[in-house]
Amino acid sequence: MTHAEKYIIKTYSGLFESLSSISKLELLEKLAKSIRKDTKIKEKVFFKSFGALASEK
């Protein structure tokens, strides 16, 4: 994690303190979806790099 990323996280975490519990849960849900989406894209790119070895599901 870069210094800039740490600073961004620290800054945003201060904003989260004022949110309600429900808002925080919704935010966590959206972050989790974003992470899963990024992971799927990275997996797709990884398997495409193997060409004929990858099978379409």
Task: Give an overview of the whole structure.
The protein is mainly α. It has one domain (3-53). The chain is 74% helix and 0% strand. It contains 2 helices and no strands. The chain is elongated. The two termini are 34 Å apart.
Terminal-residue CA separation: 34 Å
Tell me what portion of residues adopts beta-strand conformation.
under 5%
Cα-atom radius of gyration: 17 Å
Give the H and E element order: HH
Count of individual helical segments: 2
Query: Helicity level, as a percent range?
Result: over 70%
Average pLDDT score:
81
Which regions contain 5 or more consecutive residues with pLDDT less than 50? none
Number of distinct beta strands? 0
Give the overall shape, derived from the CA principal axes.
Answer: elongated
Main pleated-sheet profile: none
Helix-and-strand structural type? mainly alpha
The tally of structural domains comes to: 1
Give keywords.
0% strand, 57 residues, 74% helix, mainly alpha
Chart the SSEs and their pairings.
Blueprint: H1 3-16, H2 21-48
Compact description:
The chain is mainly α and 57 residues long. The protein is 74% helix and 0% strand. The longest helix is centred in the middle third of the chain and has 28 residues, at 21-48.
